[in-house]
Amino acid sequence: MKEKKIAWLVTHDAYIDRRILFFADVLMENGYSVKLFPSAYTDFTNDSDPDYVVRPLDWNVVKLYALSLDALMEEERGLITHVIDAQEAYHRENGTYACALELLAGMEKTRRGYTLQTVGERSGYFISIQRGNRVLVYDSHTGHTTVISDKRTGAQAGEYERAIVGANLKEIDTQGYTTVGDVALSYTKGPRGRALAAHCKTADNGVWLFNNDPPELYRGTPIPLSPVGPDTLGEKQFDFQDFRKILFEYSPILEQVRRALPEETPDLVYVADLPTLPIGVMLKEVLGCTLMVDCHEWWYKQTRLWESTWAEKIALAEKSEAELYPKCDVCITVGKYLAQDMSACYHKHFDVIYSCMSAALRLEDTVPEADFWHTYGIPDGTRIAIFQGSMTALRNLDNLARATRYLEDDCRLVVVGGGDYQEKFLHTLEKEGNPERVVMVGWVNQSELLRFTVNADLGVLPYSAVDEYYSYAVPNKLMEYFEATLPMLYDVSMKEVSMVAGEHGVGVGEDLSDPVKFGQTLNRLLHDEEQLSAMKKQYEGCRNKFSFESQRAALETVLGEHGLIERV
Known about the structure:
The protein is α/β, with parallel strands linked by helices. It has three domains: 180 residues, Glycogen Phosphorylase B (Rossmann fold); 149 residues, no CATH class; 187 residues, 3-Layer(aba) Sandwich (Rossmann fold). It has 19 helices and 19 strands. The strands form four sheets. It has a six-stranded parallel sheet, sandwiched between helices. A six-stranded parallel sheet has the order 16-15-14-17-18-19, with helices on both faces. It has a five-stranded antiparallel sheet with strand order 3-4-5-6-7, with helices on one face. Strand 6 and strand 7 form a beta hairpin. Helix 6 packs across helix 10 and helix 12 runs parallel beside helix 13. The longest helix is centred in the N-terminal third of the chain and has 21 residues. It is globular and about 65 Å long. The two termini are 24 Å apart. About 15% of the residues have low confidence.
């Protein structure tokens, strides 16, 4: 007989969302033993995993081309070494590393066709150099250079990859590497994959590759992608092959789930979003466990927005959600409006649990620090607006860049994060904004994020609704601003944000699709200490509404209604 109930949590992301950690916290507090199955590990922008996390591969093996400097092309090695020397000189003089390239004397932002960036703190720094679609990131903590992106195809890609792999087989022996793409779960096809495999099989290096090429090309014992066909769990077969071919390749995660089954059987399976929901459905049908889905997004509508040309993908996502959500015992989502529409669409009740910080990431005793911004070259008395999170399309970041034209000299916009849209943001900033008023911090660990938030004067939520679904978005930063009692500026078209921030009097709504209104309002608010103070005071009556404690109580109510925990 089991001493504890067992919960398995499954997600497709390598970067574990704090919301998932929150669910794990609550389940453990209510007597569950927890395992979390995410994607493969990357040590870029991640805190350390909790001990209940089970990844498809040992993190020491999964590197995105984790190469020594000696393995790089001469010009790339020279550029990175140039910034390393400047960072070390800066550290000797200041006791910390420079948080931005601008602080390094005589350092150009572009050189020989490359764009250079650096992000530093007391313990170390990252350097990135980019030309076209190839981004190389040097990590001073590990001494390795990582290929983050290389989207070239055919002979060009093969030529470059043969060069760096061929020059570094010895390094690969000890470090391992994976193909480019979605952190080890993407796979290459055709000549590109075969070229890499041909080099790797020449050494007894145990390289891990996820690839459609024949497994005999590889040495070592990787967790391979299963052949695209029916999935087997226990003695039962499931046909999700179209899902795996078109939507998401989840087989390395499924393999880890299979390997865990002899040791224990879950009572509850939690799945974050659609991409790994088939794994949850398989476990429910084979084991009879309770299946909970937590929808951070309405997947097919998100796909419609971001990848509107992918008709086949959109259609399959819509079909899959219609078929799979009704199979779930408990359905949860992130906001009121999304819950209403999804409940009506699938004739299934969706409960609302707002995202909040996990127990380990709460603010607690963190308070503003008098000299916090000195590290980033920002003088005392400067008014700070902050944007934190992923820089992706459809977040109105171009208008955020344009808005900086209206910031006075005593104001700064601090951007904490990064992403695919960063280059476009910086381009717009240079051409139509004011780069002198912007500080790019880069990614920081979740455990450090709220130190930045609590030291700001105003939080910016630039999102502007492009359709009804997008207006339902509930960004993580909304609750981060609540945690830090930070006044905010948001777009009036965002229904859920307007309801949460506007109705509680902790933010100001404006038409942020207009860069003039955006910039003028941003500048005015930063200088209106009376209004900022009034909004901050409003938190006294509502901050706890979205706290860890309140959302834990809400989740425990849902769990109790479904007989998953004992009601208090």
